[in-house]
Amino acid sequence: MNTVNALIAIILLILGGFVGRAWTAERVPVFVSIAPQAHFVQQIGKDLVNVQVLVEPGADPHTYEPRPQQMVALSKAVLYFAIGIEFEAAKLAKISAVNPRMKVVHTDHGVLKLPMAGHNDHDTNDDDKTDHRHGGLDPHIWLSPPLVMLQARSILTSLQAVDPVHRSAYEANYRAFIMEIVDLDAQLRAAFDGLKGSSFMVFHPSWGTFAHTYGLNQVPIEIEGKSPKPAQLKDLIERARSNRIRVVFAQPQFSSKSAEQISRAIGGRVAVVDPLASDWANNLRQVAEEFKYAFE
Predict the structure, then answer these.
(1) 258-271 b/e with 16+ CB inside 10 Å = b?
(2) 3-class secondary-structure state, position 117
């Protein structure tokens, strides 16, 4: 009888391990909305995960439409890490319908978002101070290392839940990643030391959360997803001159026409910075150097 009980216990243990970890021979299939998130998941999951990015390089995440091949891949995913960008509100229900068993993790849950810079930043005749294209709040929380720490925690707990066999490996990777973020944050704070309150001008207001984290001031050109009208463009040029701005920042996903117009008017230049770059940490270092150079 004892032998039979022992055999049953062994079988249950094996089955329990199989249920807890269905990915012994394969990596855990995961989807994220944008490329920087893939970096976060990869740092925590390493070779235990297979991460795919929904919004492809160069695409506008506000209006992105998933391709049929991506919808097929989504049907096999175990986790989807959302981050609160605009297209998710319109597409997540459709994505979930393709794969009801896939768990959607909102990594922006509990993250305090700032008001999105709107047209009132350079148009004092309007009482509406928020950019409603983003629902009034700035979704670019992946550009602030301290906020990425909060997102990383959500990623960790979700991976451990679907793959408890490798719980300790995820924990070790997470701790190493947090230390990297702390180091990056210290580097960025040192880079902007003494530059608190410095202003930079950017076409699409992607860098407001980054600016807030490091004591800078973002001046947006775009107005609720639209290029400025002539009178607004004139105001922006005057504002650039009064703030001694000589560099106007653009990003690859949007037209740089307005940025070029302003830069010509102030005798400056246009610099391209990408908030959606996949090499997240090095990209923020490079962006910091661009901003710092602009201030000098």
Answers:
(1) bbebbbebbebebb
(2) strand
Residue 16 lies in a domain: no
SS3 category, 106: strand
Average pLDDT, stretch 244-248? 88
- Indicate if the pLDDT at residue 228 is higher than 70: yes
Higher pLDDT, 130 or 155: 155
Across 135-139, average pLDDT:
83
CA nearest 112: which of 209, 214, 181, 218? 209
| Per-residue DSSP letter, 201 | E
Same domain for 83 and 205, yes or no, is no
Does 89 reside within a domain?
A: yes
The answer to whether residue 135 sits within a structural domain is yes
The predicted pLDDT at position 135 comes to: 55
CATH number at residue 100: 3.40.50.1980
Residue 14 is predicted with a pLDDT of 38
57 and 178 in a single domain? The answer is yes
**Residue the block writes with tokens 């090499």:** 279
In whole angstroms, give the CA distance from residue 271 to residue 291.
9
92 pLDDT more than 60: yes
**What is the torsional sign of CA 250, 244, 211, 213?**
positive
Contact 28, 163 (CB under 8 A): yes
3-state secondary structure of 102: coil
Lowest mean pLDDT among 89-98, 128-137, 249-258: 128-137
Same domain, 158 and 74: yes
CB atoms within 10 A of CB 72: 10
Domain encompassing residue 77: 22-188
Write down the mean pLDDT value for the chain.
85
Domain count of the chain? 2
Q: Which of 149, 164, 188 is the last residue of a domain?
A: 188
Residue at 31: amino acid letter: F
